[in-house]
Protein 1
Amino acid sequence: MVKKSTMFVCQNCGAVYPKWQGKCDTCNEWNTIVEENVKSDGFSKLGSKKEGHIIDFVPLKGTAQTYSRLQTGIKEIDRVTGGGLVPGSVILVGGDPGIGKSTLLLQVCAGLAEKNNACYYISGEEAIDQVRIRANRLELADSPVNLASATDIRNIITTLEKTEAKEVIIDSIQTMYLDEVESTPGSVGQVRACAYELIKLAKKKGFVLFLVGHVTKQGEIAGPRVLEHMVDTVLYFEGERGHHFRILRAVKNRYGATDEIGVFEMQDKGLVEVENPSALFLAERQGNISGSCVFAGIEGSRPLLVEIQALVSPSGYSTPKRAVVGWDSNRLSMVLAVLEARCSMNFSAHDVYLNIAGGLKISEPAADLAVAMAVISSLTKKPLPADMVAFGEIGLSGEIRAVAQSNLRLKEAQKLGFSGAIIPPAFGKDKKEKGLKNYDLSCYEIGHVQRLINWFN
Ligand code: TYD
Ligand code: MG
């Protein structure tokens, strides 16, 4: 007999409660708990008479299957996914509305279709005409992509069962629905049930499944974090409105490294790969101004030079303002506190603004030194030499600590024509990284923040 069961699910974090309550105890959000009905013909068989069967154990030692990956023809995507798409894998692509998810996936789809792979693009958001208009704009109208506009998962599954699909794109998972679940499309229950059915099919038939997921105001894939656990790879497509750069970032990857990024530029005719992102991010830099320092960073396996801009100005408020775009504001507070405590600088009467130029978000502690340089430069109104880069982590006692992959950072700086680098001292002593002497770059090793001041006298 079909029984109806009711549960109360938090739309923010997916926690389940037997009764309604105003506040979710798991994520502490208010008014996010919604009643969801599931028609169940006995989901939970535990406790029933039905017995399981014996599972087989095998030794850990053995040959593992190697994956033959599908190359999309878009190098940035292949790199982010760990060298191409693994058949049967499920990739969740999250991002703000309008950032370019549909554009990116249509380009991927067309790229694969042109190599004789059966590709299916199912849009639940746009009508066929809208997708065609986009394809025309991208000059991909002739690609042999199979296109449908549908939202009923039951129909989609039945159709895909009969195909030899190599790749399927669902744009977006929040628009799909399964009639068994009585809540509205986009609710946690629906998203989870639809994703579950699609993932099961992808594993069974061995196609690559892309799920597009919207992002909430908090910057998480809408509603269900649970979705992130169900899929093999989670990619975030980010970028600032008003900037043309788009970053595709792997935050989870069962088949490759995380933190890998792909850089794209949104142009008139779609997303174009950026081969040399450092040059792009530094393109609009003005030389010889105070408050600017170039940071030699690493994103994934790739070096990336970005300009860090600081503005320190007298404050009109009793509590001075600290505003950060693209970096961690707690880390800025820490760097300022260290400069105050160890270098006798005083920021208490100053507002401090920090910006990573180009709309990039960086999270490396290695940016500490470059941030400190930019802040001091703005406070003293003395510019740093324009051809210098900096990297290094700052400790609470003011010491400057070594960071990973220094050689790669320096190599990139040299490639882009920089002639000097301010770096942590341990670097020179690190025997593994002796390749340094081959560079034309002059490296200035600084052990303590107190010595930074010398650069501005
Ligand atoms: P879209 O892929 O629809 O975003 P999403 O699926 O993430 O919501 O991209 C929409 C934006 O991209 C839209 O503002 C227009 C812009 N765009 C271009 O600049 N160039 C292009 O070639 C295309 C197709 C879109
Ligand atoms: Mg879209």
Protein 2
Amino acid sequence: MRYWITGGTAVNGNGSFPADVLVEDGKIRALGEREEIAALCGEDLSGGRPRAGAAGPDQGDFQIIDASGCLVFPGFIDAHTHFDLHVAGTVTADDFATGTRAAVRGGTTTIVDFATQYPGESLAEGLANWREKAEGGCSCDYGFHMSITEWTPEVSREIDAMMNAGVTSFKLYMTYDTQVDDKTIFQILRRLKEAGGITGVHCENSGMIAALQEEARAAGRMGVESHGATRPAAAEAEAVGRLLRLAQAADAPVIVVHLTCREGLGEIRRARARGQRVYAETCPQYLLMDDSLYKLPGMEGAKYVCAPPLRGKEDAACLWQALAAGEIQTISTDHCSFTTAQKALGREDFTKIPGGMPGVETRGVLIYTYGVDAGRIRLEDMCRLLAENPAKLYGMFPRKGILAPGSDADIVIMRTGVSDMITAAGQLQNVDYAPFEGWKTTARVEQVLLRGIPVVKNGKVVQERQGIYVARGRYSL
Ligand code: DUC
Ligand code: ZN
């Protein structure tokens, strides 16, 4: 089947321009003026429009998709999701089936989730476990980072097999029970440099957090409000700084995932000034929400418990400026969803609230509305942050992340200038609340193609389980 997407404004990381797109056999065949695409389709445009008109009925060997008045983006990539993950004695509310259905509805055509090496496992076992969770049930394409939690000579030897299997990025935690110590971080950074892989790191100083949690417990401050107070920006900045010194000595590139604060950004700036290659990611919640939410009554604030925690408004402003300046390369979601019943596990003890929020469904419309429409970033910045840069950083470019001949026909048609609202009732995420409940959006994802398959029409998922595993190459950003 061929699709002719007509009348839209194509957006790539280097700009936007009116263009029609021809899709053939799951790939983008051509991008250009309507007359050029018409010639490729054997159409005579003397009547003014393609024969199929606006609605898009089947025209034999091609279908028209009317994108008039819409933005046409390369499919968004969310390189930070946690589906079907065991956290704090429970398991995330979204699995790969529900999570990827929500993703694709929001314009995300590829996710990269975190396969995790559970205690005593090899990396191969961890990866096999995650492949089994995902296989056959995904509604968008998917790949895996590998979270390394135990480092031995055997695990070190597995790195090449991971790279060959298309798992070319790795995740380390500096906090949680999955944390690795500085010696291990250093050894892994060196090993991955040698193998051509890249490391993303969750940066928080676990000792500082443990001490502050102990103090809170002793003082009987066990409510949600203590969550933010016991994970200060200094804990994040210290860990970012330490990681970057380890990376400097290892002469290795590194990714700071979910950066939340000005102080952490300062550490990144200093490392870059030393000549280091450092990439940074942030998430919509750190750009749009703040830590006053932890003061909400009862367990309301638990909905926003995530780590690192939400920060102050001035941190969010700083992150927006850094996005506009190109100092932060990607916006992912850290989608890690729990229902309010699961959040209630921490009713008596904030340290037992499972950390994380849903977000995979709403990233595109939020970043358009509060980023582009609000004048904080440009349209092409949005495209780089949500599509091109993650594709490059995680070894999928130019197969994904760009509208170009030969690329996968992962395409998002977004209508702007609308007046919509985010609600839990309207979401596909498998959660009974929406963190952005009641937030207005000025953009709507109308249609999505996944490798040329129309999977979303009129904002509804019309084809499920079309996603495939993406073996990724080496980073190229
Ligand atoms: N942070 C969360 O809030 N949840 C899961 C993992 C993480 O880093
Ligand atoms: Zn995460």
